[in-house]
Each structure stands twice: as structure tokens, then as C-alpha cells.
């Protein structure tokens, strides 16, 4: 591959790295035909990790980082001084196939700055996906970032080839969007999400292929003054109204030559982490946004401890919980017990009475759950009432961070 | 005391044969020593009552003949399949203990996750799953050019004996070209049709130059965000033992070292003046994306993929732009699909006849369909037309509306329920709404589809229906004459 191509690849990968969606999960299991290439396994396969601890599952690039828009939080905005580059449809297809054949990636995540028109941009992305499927017989994963202002028919064509479509909401509050992304419009973003949701549901009913891995979105955290509760509230609405598969949170990251409209200091990365944990509680543990928010202060999550522990510490009257008797809902609320551990407990419970060493074999969070759980040979004596419980639970984390 | 000697690696077949025989003989786990090829000569065979140098000798030899197969719960079978892949020299003995307990009153022992044996086996299974997962993830092919064309080779050092366990994954994923996976304990080869296991390979044999690696390394470096440095996290997911066979990991030390200075440089650069770009011009260019003419729209339609695959081509509308009258049907049929023109099949011919009788000149009218692609079910040689779903109608609606905007007829005739759904945006009963109607702001007229007339079974009904249809068309003509062009 020649030098200039690699140089453009660097620019267009660098420009795409701020998008948090990278997973290749959710597509139906699929294998390539005799002359094809690729498969999807249902789960995500991360082929590498970069030193920022994030995984590489997909080739995540932009078609171009030229953009007509001027979103303040984005390095590709038209007023930014970055170097620009573009790929042709052909080049993206070739690159995806080349990396895939070497088993470097699970597929492609393609996004783009908006050039010429929304339709033109969307069409380029759609054509990449179509060529991969048609001409390369590519059965790997394809995720396209839809342009909400593009004509509906183009987004729909894209859905024929992509496994997942996403539209980034970026900012939960309409007024932040107005201030920081003047050309974007919350209304058209939501309308496009609604349209997509309808098409996906229909295709499922009619057993047609249309973005079978559903749609997702991303919100940038820390670029405006939205609280965690507001962000999670927006997510809960998106999950409910448009059946989104995932909401990704991206802590606003310093970018070269940031716009003056932005906060000088980026938010702590821990905030993003807490939001993901809270998102899990929302989707898999039966928590409501209000309950999660109640674990923190003033609509912000506790940065020192995870939201489940935060909730438990504020609801000590609900603990300790008897591991041999409590129902599933309450077990799921015990800090240190994940969904898997709870499943194991429920299964094992049918055969024997659980003691501490039993639980130790079912979860790695034993230390953390001691104050909250009653077992056959363990009863936390007023531990839950201790004033310094929070500090005691924090300690191990502090020690860990010394290494 | 019995000594069982199994082959190198994951000898599932050998273990199965042996365990059948042992169970048939009532041998308890504590009376058996398991040994596999890679163990070397750790145990002397001194006190053994019977010894086999090979599983087959030991198990099937002698007068006993082959032992009957064992009926084990499925989860136990799955555990056996996984655990034999583990490197632990005790793996066969542990499995024997598990099976012994299952057969002696503890059928559901695997459900007691906290049982020490179950816990240990679960840990081994997890280790195997992880090893397999990492091999799926961290194996890298390199391209070599052989005389026979492209070939890809990979070198991987799995922790356990998982080569056979991953074979299907790679065969499913890379069916279209030849490849080889070399490991220190065996190799796997695919020639485009069949899998073949071979002897161990060497690392050097999988190290050709591959120029794509340069691009891959560039991608890896560029996708790293120095502002989020977190090497601990990276190492926990991608342990160092895998690094030496991953081309991209060479970049890691440099990336970590330079990250802080890159971030500082980034933050300092903040004060730079943004490039001047004229926003008005750029933004003014934006909305300019809708097709500007019917021809342009038709190009888009023709280039689009059918929602349901199968159609030969998109069948576009026909007739003059500015026609006073537009007819909208359902979707192209077999004939229309082959000829690429609307209303040329039997229903179209019937429509022609009725139009002529009603005094409407087809060449002056615009004729089109709500859905632009033929959808069918193949039955023998025949392609049987299938009604479009509501979702498909909605998908094509955007085009139909643009199309009618360009033609701008004074009256749109909806032929049948699908056309009504497309034009009105909702389903309406034809029988009740037949006649003049507003169709989302357009002056319209609702009637039946001519194919409905063809489908009526009895002659009298057909005649009556045709007469009613003709009446409708005469009515349409009268409306046009009453309402002169503005
Ligand atoms: S539209 Fe906004 S967020 Fe997207 S590339 Fe352009 S400037 Fe960046």
C-alpha cells in the first residue's frame, strides 16, 4: 500500500477515533458462501487493544474529514485547521477486505464528514456497504453512521446492507445542540431515529434483512452542562421510544485546536465509566433513572464508587439480604453480584444452602458484598450501619491504584 | 490399578473409548492413572493391573470387545469436550471423577456451581473459552504469493490444545482463499474446500513481508487517543504473552511514551486562529440535494436496490410530464418486470381497453406504480406475483410523491388498495371510498385495480365489475372536462 494512501488512512482513522461505538455484536449469526469472506458470531470479537484500553473490533474510519458543518466539539468542523483527506468508495472497500483477510477486524464502522450534501455523503457510505456485500460477498459486520438530513430512501437503502445504523444525538439537550452544533437539528435527528425504528420493526415482522443489529447512538458528555441524570434520562427515553440497542457515552476529549465555545477542562474519564455502569443498571438490572440518580448528588453520579454501591449505601435499610432466600430482583441490587453470579446463586440454591466459600466461588466481588449479604455462616453484625462503611469499601480501590 | 495412556493434546476419542471401558469395568477414579503423550514418563507403570500404550489397544483389545456408549447429560458431554483441550495433566482424571459422580446418584452435580470439583472444571472450561476467544481475535494472517495464487499463513501459540476447536470458526470465516494456521502443537490447512490437520509448524514459516501490515500499524497508531491513556486496561485484555505475534504491538512503547507530550501539545495549540471559511456559502450548498427533474429521480430509482431481491429492474412510470391524468397501480408484474414498462401485462391490456372505451388517450396520461420492483415467489417455472407489504409501500412512497410532484397531474387515479395506501398514507376500504377523494392534498379518484376484474371467477360478475370500472373512468374524464386546466 503506497505512502500517500497510508497517510490518508492515518488522517481518517484519527478523525474517527472520537466515536465510542466500536462493538460488533448484535448481528445474527452468519457465514460467508463458498466464494465469500467473513462471518458474524453473535458476540463481539476485539482484535486488538490500543494503549487507551479501548478495543479494536472494527475498522473505524471516515470517508472524508472535510465537513460543511461547524460542530464545536468536533475536530472535523469546517473551521478547524486539521489536515483533510478523503477516500473513494473503492478504497474503503479494498481496505476493509485487506484488513479482514488478515483477521485484523470484524468489519467496518463507517462515518463521514458532510460534504456537498447530506444525500451525497449518505450515498457514498451506502455504496461502500453495497459493494462490500455485492461484489466482495462480504458477510462480516457493517455499521454505518447515518446522516439524519439525508433523504429517507437513502437511509433505507443503507439498511439493506448494514448490520447496524446509528445516528449520533451528541447532546442530550436541544439548547446545547443549538449552541454547539448550529447546523444540526434535534428534531430531524429524532425523526430519523423514529423512521429507522419503524423500518427495523417492520423488517423484523416481515423477516427481511434491515439493520438486524438495530440502531445505536452516542452522546458526548462534559461538553455542555447537562447532568448525569439528564443524560441518563435522555437514554431511557431513547431506549423506550426507538428501541435503541445501545447508547454510547463519550467523555468529551480534548481535541487539537478546540473551539472556544467549549469548556477548557475535559471531564474526568471516570464520569464516562460511571455512565456506562448506570446504563447497565438501566438495561439489565431493573433500576430507574431516579433510583440511579438518588445514589449521587445533585443529578451527578458519585465518581468514587459505582452507582450500584452508591445506591446501596443510601438504602441501608434494604440490607443485608439473605442469599439463600431473597428474590432475584433484590439479589441483583447487592453490590458485588452481577447478573451471572445471581443466575448461579439461584441455580445452586436449589441443591444446597449457600455458605460464604460457596459464594466466593460464584463471584469475584466477595469482599464488597460482605456487609450486604447474609449467608448460612455469615451475618454482617451491624456492618451495614457503620458510619465509615463507605470509606472501608473505598480502601481496596485506593490501594489498587498504587500499582 | 489401571494406567490409561492417551495421545498428545486433546484426545477426545481416546478418552471416550477409555471411559466407556472403565465404567463398564466399574473402575473408580482413585484406581486409575491417566497419562497423555505430552506428559513424558512421569509415572512408572509398576503397580498397574492393565496397561495400554495406546488407547485403542487398552480399551478395545482383549476379550471384552468395545464397551457400550455412555448416556451422559448434555452438559456433561459439553464439559468433557471442553476440558480435554486443557493443558492440565489432571484433566482426564478430573473428568473421570465427574462422570463417576454423575453415574453414582449425582446426575445434576454440574448445577452445584460451588462444589469444588465443579468449580475447578468450570474454571478450566472458562480458560478454554478464553483461549479460543483470544485465538479468534489475536491470530493474524500474512499474505504469501504462491504459484497457485494467494495464500495466507498465520502463526499462533495457544495456551491449550484448541486447534481442532477453532477449525470451524476459521473455515466459516475464510472460505474463499487458501490459508494455513501453524502452532507449536499442530497445524491446520484450508485449500478452499477441505480442512486438513498437520504436524507442528515454526514461527519463522509464517513471517513473510506483507505490505498491508504497514497500513494496519498506521491504523492502530492513529486510532489511539493519547488523552485517554490507560495501559493497565489494555494489558488486562491483551496480555503481553500475545504481543510478540501481533504486528501492531511494536508501536505500543512509543505510543505510551509520547502520549503525555502529545496531549500537552494539543492543549497548547488551542489558541490558534481557526481557518477562515465562509460558512454562508458552505451551508447554502447543503439543502441542494433533492432530484431536480423526473429524469434525475428516475436515475435514482433505477439505481436503487429492490427491497425484496429478485426483480430484474425497477419499472419506471411512463407518460408526459404535465399530463392531466395520472394512474397509479400496485407494482409491476411478471411481464412488466421483463419488458421494463408499466401496465403491459394482462391487467395493463385491460386498462388500455377500458381507457379507450371511456375516451381517455393512454399516450396522454401518466401511468406508474406505487412500488417499483416486481416481487414474486418462484413456483416451478412460474413467477407468482406477491402483494407488497405495507412496509414496502411506505419505502417506495418517498419516490412516488416526488414523481407525482414532477408530473403534477390535475387528477390522480388510485387503482386498488395498494395505490390508495401509497397515495393516502393509510389504508382505506375501496368499496366505501370509491370515487372522488382528496389524497393527501392531491385531487384524486379511487377505483379498483384492473387485475381485480381478471380474478373474478364468474362471467356475470366480471361483466358487471367491468361496467362499473368503465363508469369510473368515464367519471374521471368528466371531472377533467369539468375542471379545465388552470
Ligand atoms: S457534522 Fe459536525 S460532528 Fe459531524 S463531522 Fe461535521 S462537524 Fe463533525
From TrEMBL, chain A:
Domain Elp3/MiaA/NifB-like radical SAM core residues, every copy: 57-277
Q: Does the keyword Metal-binding apply?
A: yes
Q: Tell me the CDD domains matching this sequence.
A: Radical_SAM (cd01335)
Identify which cofactors the protein needs according to its UniProt entry: [4Fe-4S] cluster
The record's InterPro entries line, in alphabetical order, gives: Aldolase_TIM, DNA_rSAM_put, Elp3/MiaA/NifB-like_rSAM, Endo/Exo/Phosphatase_dom_1, rSAM, rSAM_sf, RuvA_2-like
User: Which keywords, in A-to-Z order, does the entry hold?
Assistant: Iron, Iron-sulfur, Metal-binding, S-adenosyl-L-methionine
SUPFAM superfamilies in the cross-refs:
Radical SAM enzymes (SSF102114), RuvA domain 2-like (SSF47781)
Q: Which NCBIfam families does the entry link to?
A: rSAM_link_UDG
**Record-given protein name:** DNA modification/repair radical SAM protein
Automatic annotation (TrEMBL), chain B:
SMART domains for this protein: UDG (SM00986), UreE_C (SM00987)
Recorded superkingdom: Bacteria
- Swiss-Prot/TrEMBL keywords: 4Fe-4S, DNA damage, DNA repair, Hydrolase, Iron, Iron-sulfur, Metal-binding, Nucleotidyltransferase, Transferase
- Organism, by scientific name, is Labrys wisconsinensis
- Designated name of the protein: Type-4 uracil-DNA glycosylase
Family designation = Belongs to the uracil-DNA glycosylase (UDG) superfamily. Type 4 (UDGa) family.
UniProt domain Uracil-DNA glycosylase-like: residue ranges: 316-474
A molecular function (GO) term: DNA-directed DNA polymerase activity
Q: What InterPro entries does this protein's entry cite?
A: DNA_repair_put, DUF4130, UDG_Type-4/5, Ura-DNA_glyco_family4, Uracil-DNA_glycosylase-like, Uracil-DNA_glycosylase-like_sf
Amino acid at each position: 500500500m503506497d505512502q500517500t494512501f497510508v497517510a490518508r488512512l492515518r488522517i481518517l482513522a484519527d478523525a474517527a477515533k472520537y466515536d465510542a461505538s466500536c462493538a460488533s455484536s448484535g448481528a445474527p449469526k452468519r457465514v460467508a458462501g463458498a466464494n465469500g469472506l467473513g462471518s458474524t458470531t453473535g458476540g463481539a470479537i476485539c482484535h486488538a487493544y490500543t494503549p487507551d484500553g479501548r478495543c479494536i473490533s472494527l475498522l473505524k474510519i471516515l470517508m472524508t474529514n472535510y465537513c460543511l458543518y461547524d460542530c464545536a466539539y468536533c475536530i472535523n468542523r469546517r473551521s478547524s485547521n486539521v489536515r483533510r483527506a478523503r477516500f473513494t468508495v473503492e478504497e474503503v472497500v479494498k481496505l476493509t477486505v485487506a484488513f479482514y483477510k488478515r483477521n485484523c477486524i470484524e468489519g467496518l464502522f463507517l462515518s463521514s464528514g458532510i460534504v456537498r450534501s447530506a444525500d451525497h455523503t449518505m450515498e457514498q457510505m451506502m455504496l461502500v456497504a453495497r459493494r462490500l456485500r455485492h461484489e466482495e460477498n462480504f458477510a462480516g459486520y457493517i455499521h454505518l453512521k447515518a446522516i439524519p438530513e439525508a433523504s429517507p430512501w437513502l437511509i433505507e437503502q443503507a439498511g439493506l446492507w448494514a448490520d447496524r445504523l446509528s445516528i449520533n444525538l451528541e447532546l442530550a439537550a436541544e439548547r446545547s445542540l443549538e449552541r454547539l452544533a448550529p447546523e444540526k437539528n434535534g428534531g430531524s435527528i429524532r425523526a430519523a431515529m423514529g423512521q429507522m425504528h419503524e423500518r427495523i420493526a417492520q423488517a423484523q415482522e416481515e423477516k427481511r434483512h434491515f439493520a438486524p443489529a438495530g440502531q445505536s447512538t452516542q452522546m458526548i458528555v462534559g461538553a455542555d452542562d447537562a447532568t448525569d441524570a439528564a443524560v441518563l434520562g435522555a437514554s431511557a427515553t431513547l431506549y423506550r421510544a426507538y428501541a435503541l440497542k445501545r447508547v454510547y457515552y463519550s467523555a468529551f476529549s480534548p481535541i487539537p485546536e478546540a473551539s472556544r465555545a467549549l469548556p477548557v477542562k475535559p471531564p474526568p474519564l471516570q464520569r464516562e465509566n460511571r455512565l456506562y455502569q448506570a446504563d447497565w443498571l438501566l438495561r439489565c438490572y431493573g433500576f430507574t433513572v431516579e433510583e440511579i440518580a438518588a445514589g449521587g448528588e445533585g443529578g451527578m453520579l458519585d465518581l468514587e464508587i459505582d452507582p450500584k454501591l452508591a445506591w446501596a449505601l443510601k438504602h441501608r435499610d434494604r440490607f443485608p439480604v439473605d442469599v439463600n432466600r431473597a428474590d432475584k430482583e433484590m439479589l441483583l441490587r447487592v453490590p458485588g453480584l452481577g447478573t451471572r453470579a445471581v443466575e448461579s446463586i439461584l441455580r445452586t440454591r436449589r441443591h444446597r444452602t449457600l455458605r460464604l466459600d460457596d459464594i466466593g466461588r460464584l463471584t469475584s466481588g466477595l469482599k464488597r458484598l460482605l456487609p450486604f449479604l447474609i449467608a448460612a455462616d455469615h451475618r454482617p453484625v451491624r456492618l451495614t450501619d457503620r458510619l465509615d462503611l463507605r470509606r472501608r469499601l473505598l480502601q481496596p480501590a485506593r490501594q489498587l491504584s498504587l500499582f | 490399578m489401571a494406567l490409561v495412556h492417551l495421545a498428545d493434546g486433546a484426545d477426545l476419542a481416546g478418552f471416550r473409548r477409555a471411559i466407556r471401558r472403565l465404567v463398564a469395568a466399574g473402575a473408580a477414579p482413585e484406581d486409575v492413572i491417566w497419562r497423555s503423550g505430552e506428559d513424558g514418563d512421569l509415572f512408572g507403570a509398576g503397580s498397574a493391573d492393565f496397561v495400554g500404550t495406546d488407547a485403542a489397544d487398552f480399551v478395545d483389545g482383549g476379550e471384552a470387545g468395545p464397551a457400550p456408549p455412555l448416556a451422559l447429560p448434555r452438559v456433561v458431554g459439553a464439559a468433557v469436550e471442553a476440558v480435554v483441550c486443557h493443558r492440565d495433566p489432571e484433566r482426564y482424571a478430573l473428568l473421570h471423577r465427574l462422570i463417576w459422580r454423575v453415574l453414582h446418584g449425582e446426575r445434576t452435580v454440574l448445577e452445584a456451581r460451588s462444589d469444588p470439583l465443579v468449580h475447578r472444571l468450570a474454571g478450566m472450561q472458562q480458560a478454554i473459552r478464553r483461549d479460543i476467544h483470544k485465538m479468534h481475535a489475536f491470530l493474524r494472517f500474512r499474505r504469501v504469493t504462491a504459484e497457485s495464487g494467494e495464500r495466507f499463513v498465520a502463526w499462533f501459540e495457544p495456551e491449550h490444545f484448541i486447534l481442532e476447536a477453532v477449525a470451524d470458526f476459521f473455515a466459516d470465516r475464510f472460505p474463499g482463499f487458501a490459508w494455513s494456521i501453524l502452532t507449536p502443537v499442530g497445524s491446520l490447512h484450508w485449500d478452499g474446500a477441505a480442512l486438513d490437520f498437520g504436524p507442528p509448524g515454526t514461527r519463522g514459516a509464517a513471517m513473510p513481508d506483507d505490505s498491508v501490515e504497514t497500513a494496519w500499524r498506521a491504523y492502530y497508531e492513529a486510532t489511539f487517543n493519547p488523552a485517554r491513556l490507560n495501559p493497565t486496561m489494555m494489558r488486562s485484555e491483551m496480555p503481553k504473552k500475545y504481543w510478540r505475534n501481533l504486528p501492531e504491538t511494536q508501536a505500543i512503547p512509543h505510543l505510551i511514551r509520547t502520549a503525555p507530550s502529545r496531549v500537552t501539545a494539543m492543549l497548547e495549540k488551542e489558541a490558534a486562529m481557526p481557518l477562515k471559511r465562509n460558512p454562508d456559502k458552505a451551508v447554502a450548498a447543503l439543502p441542494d440535494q433533492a432530484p431536480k427533474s423526473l429524469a434525475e429521480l428516475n436515475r435514482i430509482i433505477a439505481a436503487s436496490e429492490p427491497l425484496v431481491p429478485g426483480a430484474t429492474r425497477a419499472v419506471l412510470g411512463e407518460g408526459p410530464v404535465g399530463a392531466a391524468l395520472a394512474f397509479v397501480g400496485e407494482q409491476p408484474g411478471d411481464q412488466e418486470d421483463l419488458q421494463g414498462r408499466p401496465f403491459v401485462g394482462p391487467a395493463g391490456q385491460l386498462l388500455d381497453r377500458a381507457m379507450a372505451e371511456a375516451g381517455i388517450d393512454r399516450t396522454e396520461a401518466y401511468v406508474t406504480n406505487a412500488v417499483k420492483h416486481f416481487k414474486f415467489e418462484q413456483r416451478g417455472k412460474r413467477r407468482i406475483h406477491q402483494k407488497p407489504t405495507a412496509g414496502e409501500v411506505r419505502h417506495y412512497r418517498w419516490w412516488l410523491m416526488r414523481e407525482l410532484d414532477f408530473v403534477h397531474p390535475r387528477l390522480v387515479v388510485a387503482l386498488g388498495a395498494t395505490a390508495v395506501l401509497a397515495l393516502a398514507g393509510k389504508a382505506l376500504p375501496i368499496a366505501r371510498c370509491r370515487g372522488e377523494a382528496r389524497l393527501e392534498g392531491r385531487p384524486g379518484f379511487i377505483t379498483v385495480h384492473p387485475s381485480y376484474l381478471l380474478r373474478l371467477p364468474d362471467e356475470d360478475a366480471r361483466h358487471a365489475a367491468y361496467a362499473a370500472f368503465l363508469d369510473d373512468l368515464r367519471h374521471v374524464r368528466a371531472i377533467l372536462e369539468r375542471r379545465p386546466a388552470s
